[in-house]
Amino acid sequence: MPSFRRFRRAALALAATAIVAAAVPAEAQYFGRNKVRYRTFKYQVLKTAHFDIYYYPEERLAVEQAAQMAERWYARLSKILNHELKLRQPVILYASHPDFEQTNVLEGEMGEGTGGVTEILKRRVVLPMAGPLAETDHVLGHELVHAFQFDITGHVGPVSEGSVPAAVRMPLWFIEGMAEYLSLGPVDAHTAMWMRDAVKKAQRDEKKDRLPSIRDLENPNFFPYRWGQALWAYVAGRWGDPVVGQMLRAAARANDMDHVVSEVLGVDAKKLAEDWHAALREAYVPLVASKQAPSRYGSAVITDRNGGELNVGPALSPDGRRMVFLSSKSLFSIEMFLAEVPSGRIVRKIVKTAADPHFDSLEFINSAGGWDRAGRRFAFGGVRKGSPVLTILDVDAGRIEREVPFKQLGEIFDPTWSPDGRRVAFVALVGGLMDLFIYDLQSGALKRVTDDAFAELQPAWSPDGRHIAFVTDRFTTRLENLATGDYRLAMLDVDSGDVRELPGFEGVKNIDPQWSADGASLFFISDRNGISNVYRLALDGGTLTQVTDLLTGATGITNLSPALSAAAGRLAYSVYEDEKYPIYTVDDAKTLAGFTPAAETTQAAALPPLERRRAEVAALRDNFNLGLPDRKKFGAADYQPKLNLDYIGQPSIGVGRDPFGTYVGGGVSFLFSDMLGNHTLGASLQIQGSFDDFGGVVFYQNRKHRWDWGAAVQQIPYLTGGYGIGTDVVNGVLVGVQQAELDRQIDRSATLFADYPFSRAQRFEVSGSVRRISFKNELRTEFFDLNTGQLLDQRKEKLPSASALNLAEAGAALVYDTTTFGATSPILGRRYRLEVTPTFGTVNYTGVLADVRQYVMPVRPYTLAARVIHYGRY
């Protein structure tokens, strides 16, 4: 008789298990943070010649303007890149960043620094309104460059494995740098600041801080947006702007940047880098010699030694002896600190975010806070539970004194106190546009001071309480053709509501006004010479003087970020220096008085080469009428969800033979969704042999509301068995015998699941399913001639098997997670899962799970982890 060996065919079971795991929503995983949908958006669709723009009614005015700008960008980019998009381009717009963070179009969390995304499945451009028209215009243009990149280097239709647009595999400096160059052009004070800083570092120590080669730019240490824009500005300036589209097409054909450079430009990558470096030095070395370091004007109070590499949003107390600022000192997130001035001693962390879920955002990119006149309370704008909040801290007590939510607003920035401490002024994003507000802390009344498409930024209440200085584009922007203008200083008469323009520098930015203690002057930041410096405006007479003459610039993270504070004869400002953001102070009265600005051009803001060939990008950017449609002709309709195929998994088929016979198997997967990502339908199949060996799952998920729910139906087969070869006597003849015993376990189930996130850190999960686990055993016998090997006979015999298990399963879990991950595991925070899973039917029991984990970091970089777990079936 045959001797048997056991086997287990696990491939099919494993494949099907992976399919099921993919069907489960991210929120229903064991741990993990949540994307909370605080609102259910009622979307409409605005149609233009080339775009379908998805929006909700409260942002209608801003969306109409964005639609006009989108068509203008289409006209520009189609000329520059010599390409027309093959299909209509979807654009999904949100009125604020907190709304954008709730999007279902994109998986995962949308960080505060994400200004927009163009995804590859449906080529959707997704972005929040930035507020000022110029900023929304830039981000929209940047993302539409990506849409053109994907269209030029990809195909029409759903994505499948191995068929994503070639742009996805290109270096980030190539892709993101191109988008920055085409949307901003070759004159950009912010990127030029980065390049001046790099030239200075390389001049100081060429071996340690050399300028990057083309290959070096693939290192993430070289920020691809800034470095990529600078390199593209050089390439387009030397060979002409049409070369941008030529290089993109060449890169789609070849996966080698050295080859692309050589083919299109006619020089090798090494020579290109050398020439580029020479142009950078030619443009910026004279400035390195003539401009000053910030230490020339005062001492550094916060650096990477007592703070982090990023220290921004300084806010001096009224007596100038303390300062609140935002910093990456804790490494894992941006948090708020209190420091003494001028010693720089960190008193304490006053707002935590790394492992504390209280705030969704501190608005560290676009906002700073403000002290009340008594120096006891500090106000700042943040985001909590998807809505903006005005938070008032009792600084001495180190606690939140009051939080005022504004659900009718999108975001609030730069709060400033009235001298009597009764009112707070701030700017807010409403319907995608930025306006000025005043909130009465006693009555709770909110007054909207401005209500138009012009931008208001960075208000500062005067010491006498009669005026508020702020930044606006209302004196330079033309709404009739959306010609964005420069930012100017303005003054609001609080009682009358009258607004007047203040003296400043024309054609450049004038931002971040700060009152002198006597109320006679305003300090502010301008890039009048191509470099962001501190200036002083004497309100009586309008005399302008220059306080600093820096090489890099007084700046926050972006060119519009608040970076300046003034109090009690002292200035504090953040500066970009050595790829970091320290905070410096100026105390000397003579320095604060300033000097007469020299006659300079804005050449320092230009990216080399200064003499450009065929400067089409700059010319097209300056043509505000090109392609601009009449928004009165736009059509609009309610959004109707429709599932379309997004993704096809690579189909597979296989043929094999083993001692049990010949097998044919294969598999395929599909993913469908609607345009907003509210509805997802997926299916994945693995076929092998009979129906009992068929594995697969079909699932649906609805994410339109805060309750996230779905359903899945699946079958997972598990095949085990054994085989043996021997001899036996049949009808008096000795024959060979081959036997195979096949044991099947078939797991079929239908599941409903849902979860409700209370916050980004905590959620409640619930599920229910019916499940049948059946068993089938079979014996296959083959008889063959020992001499010739000829098959003589085949038999199949059903063997006794265990009875099927019929189960009804339920589950409920409370999940919490505030952990911050390091390279391989959590390093800070807490997570727990408390779960009950009763099972009824053929067997009855209740599973109870409690899994609590805590991670603390007593001394960097060491983490202590503790875990308490209980699991039992009762």
Walk me through what this model shows:
The protein has 874 residues and is of the alpha+beta class. It has three domains: 3-35 and 676-873, no CATH class; 44-169, Collagenase ColT, N-terminal domain (Glutaredoxin, 3-Layer(aba) Sandwich); 298-587, 6 Propeller (Neuraminidase), CATH 2.120.10. Helix 6 (189-204) crosses helix 10 (269-290). The radius of gyration is 33 Å and the shape is globular. Mean pLDDT is 92; it is low at 4-27.
Please outline the helices and strands.
Layout (H helix, E strand, L loop, with lengths): L2 E7 L1 H13 L20 E4 L3 E5 L4 H22 L7 E6 L2 H4 L16 E2 L6 E4 L4 H21 L5 E2 L11 H13 L4 H16 L19 H16 L3 H11 L3 H9 L3 H22 L9 E3 L8 E6 L5 E6 L7 E6 L5 E6 L18 E2 L5 E8 L2 E8 L4 E7 L5 E7 L5 E8 L2 E8 L5 E3 L7 E6 L5 E6 L15 E6 L5 E3 L8 E6 L5 E6 L6 E6 L5 E3 L17 E4 L2 E5 L8 E4 L2 H5 L22 H7 L12 E4 L5 E5 L3 E7 L2 E13 L5 E10 L6 E8 L5 E23 L2 E25 L4 E23 L6 E9 L5 E13 L2 E2 L4 E16 L3 E15 L2 E12 L1
Parallel strand pairs: 3-4, 4-6, 7-33
Antiparallel strand pairs: 1-38, 2-3, 2-32, 5-6, 8-31, 9-10, 10-11, 11-12, 13-14, 14-15, 15-16, 17-18, 18-19, 19-20, 21-22, 22-23, 23-24, 25-26, 26-27, 27-28, 29-30, 30-31, 33-35, 34-35, 35-36, 36-37, 37-38, 38-39, 39-40, 40-41, 40-42, 42-44, 43-44, 44-45, 45-46
Helix pairs in contact: 2-4, 4-5, 5-7, 6-7, 6-10, 8-9
